[in-house]
Amino acid sequence: MTENVTAWFTERFETAVHSQYQQLTSRLGDTVSGGGTFVGDKVHFPRIDAVKSYKSPAFARLALANANQDMIEVSAEPEFVAFGLWDPHKHKYSIATAVEYGAQAAAAIARAEDDCIVAQLQDAATNGVKKIGLAEMESIVTLGDYVTVANLDLVAEAMAVLGGNEVPETDKVTIAMPFRNKVQFSLDPMMSESNKKHMVWDDLNWRRTERLPLSNDEAGVDIFVYAKSAIVSGYNDKLTKIDERDGPALTDIIGYWLQVGAKARNARGIIRIKSKRNFSLYREPTRTFETNAEVFPA
Question: Could you write out the DSSP letters of every residue in 66-109?
């Protein structure tokens, strides 16, 4: 325990961090696969390419070693979030202060997760993903452009491409986009129809994140549709508490450090949708049926 901060402040800070962290549903940390093996600061994930069955048992035995497989290595780098509590101000601290510190720490941890996942999605779009068992890179599919606002047709096309790439239907699919572009989809009449039949985008896990970077011309943004199995992440299981005293600075330090890392595993499970960032809030009415001029004269 720090020397001058009372136990209740640190305990309330810890409670706020964990409760706020669990409530940050917009983060991307739970939209990707985990479960890798930590070796020091590295996490290793196995990959195996698609295989086919054989009618001949003898031929099958010959082909056992022909399945492309490898291990990918994810660097889980340390991330720190810490606050300095200066002694002369400690008489002003309250439960509300501890809660505010905790909320900010939880948000910083979520941003660290989002940043490494988005960085890998962007890297996959720019450089591709290394093929399983091979040195060559495989490009991901890109839809749309930066001069047109993305619409539900592109979202449905992305889902169709994932299905054609044999992404399992049980695999959770996420669409990550800036909040501004998510508003555009919310304005679409098809998204607000309460009586619509089941649509392909109903299966999507809609997530907004402001971590997605703009394109070079600042006019467009990349939206990503990806299967959970296509991105792997490694995080240490527990947050490590920072609770120390900096005597010369007359400051107590409270916070956490963690290790985070992510990497694209399968190019066929990631789709990029290019979209214009800005759009008009005006929407023309959508005609749902043709009127009969005789029954309903002008």
Answer: GS-EEEEEEE-EEEEEEEEEEGGGGGG--HHHHHHHHHHHHHHH
